[in-house]
Structure to design on (700 residues):
């Protein structure tokens, strides 16, 4: 699956910025891919991009309309259909992260057939996966894990990948959710894989690589989430991470949407993730805490970083506010040198 | 999904009894449902049932041909097709636990349409599931868990259900795999559910029930399995078990098919399962060890039971050799009385 850019970001008629997190994510990380935004009315959230009709966006060079809003239950809304059909008639491909498939909508399917544009349902893998083999793969891997859903696992992975790339270190961002896939242009929506094959899909997502290469893998869910922990565990086992980064939003009071489920402590969350990760990679360890400190001033931020560090013994950072340079320093500090499987040569010994 | 019995057990041409475990399981637990067996040649495994052609089985009252053998990758073999078509023409429904769907085979689909028989793909749910809610349900639940796949989780659950039913205690066996579903006539193949909904499917499988009613739920996989642990964790969280029974085959040397993966100790396996189970049911605890002691004499069996009991502090039994009466004694010993949520009446206090 390779989605042609640039994109027209479609925002429907949602007034809530949080519902537009797919569009915001693409704009935050791949602004060079964003030709404009398409909003259905004046109350719709404004990302600050030029407003464009599908025809105007196509004329300006856009190749794909991306549905940038989430809906309850992942449905494609009837209010969107006229605009989606206009986009198809203007020659734009359509990309969607909804559970519902674009091709299952008769008018959309018919229009796409007529004009020959592509429909990308990024939530649904376009291939089958094997059962996980458990075989240790070459290369190095970092996985972001969370105390809960929606605490910054994707942003932490993107920031770490960005910091690695800025220093010229070979690395790939590996997307496991729909927004990540639209940012990266590829990946696997792990939560949409049949559960027998979820760990196998995670293995396929980060194949064997050069010994010094880093795959930075976007985490999903939480081992402490009553609905999604199985997804998190399959991703953890299949990813075989050398390094874990635990993500947290300090304002979160309980598992989001599950008021009866308290959050685990950072320490308990690290312990559970490291213990589970060591099944497939005995060298796994947690190297940093990613905290969402939006709205805090410098002194509040310093204080919350210090407190996380005191509790866990590892560094804390904010993917947006501070960037992930400190994480890269840790990765380069020598603890992650590949284990030599042959005798060292004289040159290597000196 | 309600599969009409009695069954004709189809064994294909497999010479290996282990490949016929679906047929053996049905025969062991629901012999009254088995009209006969259908074997393609003289080398095929013999379960001791009368050999019958599909037409003869239909004449003898059979309603459904059950594919009782497993194949590598879950494919429907070409060598079977003539017999399956003959069964359909004789008016038998077909039930299959393969990954491949019966209805995807053009000749089978056409014949079934013509004669009006039903095709049951028990591995594929005939409904959609919600995301798990984490809401505590009424009634009591027991889940069998394992150190590995294929260590007796289904047999342990069936034996416990049988022992409860024999004592007149309200209980249901809840099947989570294809053989269990064919034995019970219903259930959910949890490993075939999309991973986002696996815990939700487990919640749907054992709905609210009377306070004293037991759901005895068939476990899947192992938290220590590099491919299937995510399935096991989703089932554990969605089942909300009050009681866990850990299943083990003492002859197993490592995770089956994964020689690099050692088995966990019974103690480590109990600890990991109880810790994870307490996320959705803080009262969860392990009450027994089910051991497969096939081929052992009484003294070997006593010794291995004693050793398991010494290591774990809970009773050990063999679902086949000893039955599960001791487990029912433990369940009835008072530790599982429902918590009263209203003041006790005078009658209850005395």
């Amino acid at each position: 699956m390779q989605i042609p850019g640039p994109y027209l970001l479609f925002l429907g008629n949602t007034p809530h910025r949080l519902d537009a997190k797919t569009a915001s994510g693409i704009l935050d990380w791949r602004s060079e891919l964003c030709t404009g935004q398409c909003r259905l009315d004046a109350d719709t959230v404004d990302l600050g991009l030029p407003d464009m009709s599908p025809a105007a966006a196509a004329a300006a060079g856009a190749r794909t309309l991306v549905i940038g809003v989430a809906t309850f239950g992942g449905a494609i809304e009837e209010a969107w259909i006229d605009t989606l059909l206009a986009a198809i008639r203007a020659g734009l491909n359509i990309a969607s992260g909804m559970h519902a498939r674009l091709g299952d909508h008769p008018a959309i399917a018919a229009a796409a057939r007529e004009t020959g544009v592509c429909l990308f349902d990024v939530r649904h893998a376009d291939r089958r996966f094997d059962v996980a083999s458990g075989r240790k793969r070459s290369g190095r891997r970092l996985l972001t894990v969370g105390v809960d859903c929606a605490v910054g696992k994707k942003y932490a992975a993107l920031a770490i990948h960005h910091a690695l790339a800025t220093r010229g270190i070979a690395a790939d961002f590996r997307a496991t959710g729909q927004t990540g896939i639209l940012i990266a242009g590829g990946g696997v929506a792990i939560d949409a894989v049949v559960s027998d094959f979820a760990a196998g899909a995670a293995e396929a997502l980060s194949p064997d690589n050069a010994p010094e290469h880093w795959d930075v893998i976007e985490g999903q869910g939480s081992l402490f989430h009553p609905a999604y922990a199985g997804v998190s565990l399959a991703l953890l086992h299949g990813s075989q991470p050398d390094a874990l980064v635990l993500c947290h939003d300090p304002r979160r009071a309980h598992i989001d949407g599950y008021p009866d489920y308290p959050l685990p402590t950072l320490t308990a969350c690290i312990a559970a993730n490291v213990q589970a990760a060591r099944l497939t990679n005995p060298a796994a360890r947690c190297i940093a805490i990613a905290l969402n400190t939006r709205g805090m001033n410098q002194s509040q931020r310093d204080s919350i970083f210090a407190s996380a560090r005191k509790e866990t013994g590892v560094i804390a950072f904010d993917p947006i506010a501070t960037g992930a340079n400190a994480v890269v320093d840790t990765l380069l500090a020598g603890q992650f040198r590949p284990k030599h499987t042959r005798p060292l040569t004289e040159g290597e010994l000196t």
Notes: Residues 338-350 of chain A have pLDDT under 50 and may be disordered. Chain A touches chain B at residues 131-135, 190-196, 198-200, 223-224, 226-235, 237, 255, 258, 260-261, 272, 275-276, 279-280 (CB under 8 Å). The domain at 7-121 of chain A is CATH 3.40.50.720 (Rossmann fold). The CA atoms of residues 72 and 216 of chain A lie 29 Å apart.
